[in-house]
Write a structure and sequence with these properties.
heterotrimer; A alpha/beta; B alpha/beta; C mainly alpha; B: alpha/beta; Rossmann fold; 3-stranded antiparallel beta sheet; 9 helices; globular; C: mainly alpha; 0% strand; binds adenosine-5'-triphosphate; binds magnesium ion
Chain lengths: 271, 237, 234
């Protein structure tokens, strides 16, 4: 009987070892990125091209930008692909990352109920649109998760001179882009979304794009190698290879080629 | 282990003095039957001999001194069987003795043969009738070849045929030199099996006598009433 | 077709078409949760049995702790395991984060208390029945645990199934320590969470139905085995 337990334990440990080694077979890097990029389907389109080219598998962990930067700080990823320029620069300045490069941009869109009670459709610019929403006090769902989108939203409120926190119409989801859109759809509320997630989002119900196109809504993505000097296990060569590729003409072509229903979602940077 | 000298055993539970100065001397041979009304403390006494209960006071002298770790087996009033075959239940008793598996099985098979259950060795023990279950419990005790066997009402609620079967097995175990201590409320059985009778009432030994003497001329009033079947009635009200 | 109808037809298509990607995540879910339950069986059941049989100071407190741990949110376990396995954590040097092994570790921590708590109750009840017999036969504490574990095997199957159910259905822990990486750590539940956040609710429900089908299948097999065994040694 004791023998049986030991045998089972041995079996379990062997199984675990097999799983662990299977996961480590072949070269791979961990890319911490944002839910918006992952959910837009971009990675599914461009990563196979890179993997075929380089033989390096890219494992994408999709988080908010803030979380992704945390994961990088702890050394749990090799490369980051995020969108919050200020936070990215701080990450590099603090010595957590090296070799930050611009990769691409997409844009944010203001979505809300098609009836548009706040009249956002007629706004002069993005700041005006946010002002109208606050003025009318229509329901707003914020990501509230320290993501790049969340950071961008807070910048717009500030520019519009609005302090939304604590207002009855302002709800913080504390969730990714998709769940936030699910909430907005369910409540008939406004929210700020990235075009990629919006384009692949299927539970729109009554939601529609009400405002877009202001250059201030542009949403630039940067790629950063986690500092190998700080975290020696970081796969420097493979990570650099990925960074080189995604910023190379081949990478730019792949990014430009990704479309959902004829709509291009991401534009390579620098233009 | 023998002679076994029990002196002034005391044990209280739930505010009642269950054993109240129980003393008895037991020699190394034969079958002793413990008689006494319900609640007299017979089962408690057997449990103490088995090492399952600790006395509050008094002493049990096992001849050489401390209670031997081996050589005592007990069959409970309501024997419990594992969810296993008859064979598995019987060989179980040999496991603490460190008997190798092959020998365990052989001995289990042999002892099942002797209690007349060999044909059902592979059946589930949980599916046995009351009488069969008691025989199995006897087999489980017997297989360890105990020096002292404690039987707590092994034939309670059995039909006459089953009672007879059990008695035959008990006699056979005795002929192998096992000292047997047994409780019963079946006075006929006591006369058939016992060499001597210990009569217990209210946690003390009222009388210890050879079986013929006990039934012919009980010395204590309590024993007399019990034999006449009156004591249990008085106890009930 | 409405959302639910769509979900059912999607689920059927996923099952009937034996979608390769679905098969992959079903397989990974089974591997990860299966291993976690195997660890749970080997560690949790004896642990619970020891608590059911043993009498030592602090036992009651342990029982309460164990019962309480049954309700431990999987996210909490996930965060704790994440912090432990993180490169900056105490076990960082093994590089297990974002691997199936990390998910097995997290789920093991989730199911061990659950399985131990159920085993404790089952074995304690049995011990009440057998204590005198086993003690009289000379079984020590550890040997009694072994005998009872074997004797209660049919009832303990419930503990195993409960563990499997919890492991297969939890999403908080595997999401955090596995990272929901496609082709690597994406399980049924993290895939469901992903499809939900993409707003593809019918596909999410369809995957949920596939998960339900898998769990039902496993339970069915277990039930049949149990029936068969019980008929033998009721
Ligand atoms: N573990 C226990 N805790 C409390 N009381 C107990 C315990 N065991 C026995 N008793 C009490 O001790 C008394 C004697 O019980 P015991 O089982 O020894 O009687 P008995 O002589 O075997 O009776 P019967 O002929 O009915 O079997 C009873 O009143 C019983 O309730
Ligand atoms: Mg009794």
């Amino acid at each position: 009987m004791a023998h049986g337990i030991l045998k089972k334990l041995k079996l379990a440990v062997l199984g675990l070892a097999a799983l662990a080694s299977a996961a480590h077979a072949g070269e791979s890097i961990v890319l911490a990125s944002t839910t918006s990029t992952e959910q837009s389907g971009l990675f599914n389109f461009i990563l196979p091209i890179f993997e075929k080219d380089s033989g390096i598998a890219v494992k994408v962990v999709a988080l908010g930008t803030g979380q992704a930067l945390d994961v990088g700080r702890r050394g749990d990823a090799d490369v980051l692909l995020v969108h919050d320029r200020a936070a990215e620069d701080k990450f590099v300045a603090d010595g957590y990352g090296v070799d930050r490069r611009d990769v691409m941009y997409n844009d944010f869109v203001l979505v809300g109920p098609a009836a548009d009670a706040a009249g956002v459709k007629g706004a002069r610019d993005a700041v005006d649109a946010f002002g109208r929403i606050a003025g009318k006090g229509v329901s707003w769902v914020s990501r509230g998760d320290r993501s790049g989108t969340h950071a961008a939203e807070l910048r717009f409120w500030q520019s519009a001179g609005v302090e939304p926190k604590g207002q009855g119409w302002y709800k913080e989801a504390g969730a990714g882009m998709g769940p936030t859109l699910n909430m907005a759809a369910g409540m008939g509320a406004y929210t700020l979304a990235d075009r990629g997630t919006w384009a692949s989002f299927r539970n729109r119900q009554d939601l529609a794009i009400l405002f877009a196109g202001d250059p201030r809504l542009y949403n630039p993505y940067g790629v950063i190698l986690v500092n190998p000097a700080r975290h020696p296990h970081v796969k420097r060569a493979a990570g650099e290879r990925f960074i080189d590729w995604i910023t190379s003409p081949a990478g730019r072509r792949a990014i430009s080629a990704y479309r959902i229903g004829n709509e291009q979602l991401f534009y390579p940077l620098p233009k | 282990m023998f002679p076994l000298t029990v002196r002034e055993l005391r044990w209280a539970a739930g505010g009642r003095q269950v054993l109240d100065g129980l003393s008895v001397d037991l020699g190394g041979e034969g079958i002793t039957i413990l008689l006494g009304p319900n609640g007299a403390g017979k089962s408690v006494f057997l449990r103490m001999l088995c090492g399952l209960l600790e006395a509050d006071g008094g002493s049990i002298d096992w001849g050489t001194g401390a209670r031997p770790a081996r050589g005592i087996a007990m069959v409970f009033q309501q024997p419990r069987m594992l969810r296993d075959s008859l064979l598995g239940n019987v060989e179980l008793a040999l496991r603490p003795l460190g008997v190798p598996a092959a020998e365990r099985r052989a001995r289990a098979q042999a002892v099942l043969e002797r209690v007349g259950l060999a044909g059902r060795a592979a059946d589930s023990a949980r599916g046995l009738s009351g009488g069969e279950r008691q025989r199995l419990a006897l087999a489980r005790a017997w297989i360890t070849r105990p020096r002292l066997l404690l039987l707590d009402e092994p034939t309670a609620s059995l039909d006459p045929g089953s009672v007879d079967a059990i008695e035959r097995i008990v006699r056979e175990i005795r002929t192998e030199g096992t000292r047997i201590l047994m409780t019963t409320h079946n006075l006929g059985q006591a006369t058939r099996l016992a060499d001597d009778v210990v009569f217990i009432d209210a946690g003390r030994v009222c009388e210890h006598a050879p079986v013929q003497r006990f039934f012919a001329r009980p010395a204590s009033q309590a024993a007399r009433l019990y034999i006449q079947g009156e004591l249990p009635w008085r106890m009930a009200f | 077709m409405n959302g639910l109808g769509l979900a059912f037809s999607d689920a059927f298509a996923l099952l009937a078409g034996f979608d390769r990607r679905v098969a992959e995540i079903v397989l990974l879910s089974l591997q990860v949760s299966g291993l976690a339950v195997l660890f749970g069986t080997v560690l949790g059941l004896p642990l619970g049995a020891c608590l059911g049989v043993g009498r030592f100071p602090g036992r009651q407190a342990l029982v309460v702790l164990l019962n309480g741990c049954m309700g431990l949110p999987s996210v909490v376990v996930g965060v704790v395991v994440y912090l432990a396995l993180s490169r900056s954590g105490p076990l960082g040097k093994f590089g297990l984060l974002y691997s199936p092994a990390a998910m097995v570790i997290a789920q093991t921590l989730l199911v061990v208390p659950l399985m131990a708590a159920i085993a404790r109750q089952v074995v304690e009840d049995a011990w009440r029945d057998y204590e005198e017999e086993l003690t009289a036969m000379g079984f020590g504490w550890a040997d009694s645990v072994r005998v009872l574990l074997h004797d209660c095997r049919h009832s303990l199957l419930v503990a195993v199934l409960a563990g499997l159910g919890r492991a297969m259905s939890e999403v908080g822990a595997v999401m955090i320590v596995g990272g929901n990486i496609e082709h690597s750590t994406r399980t049924m539940t993290t895939a469901i969470a992903l499809e939900t956040s993409k707003g593809d609710l019918p596909l999410a429900v369809a995957l949920g139905l596939v998960l339900l089908a898998v769990i039902l299948l496993l339970n069915g097999i277990a039930h049949a085995l149990r029936q068969w065994a019980m008929r033998r040694y009721a």
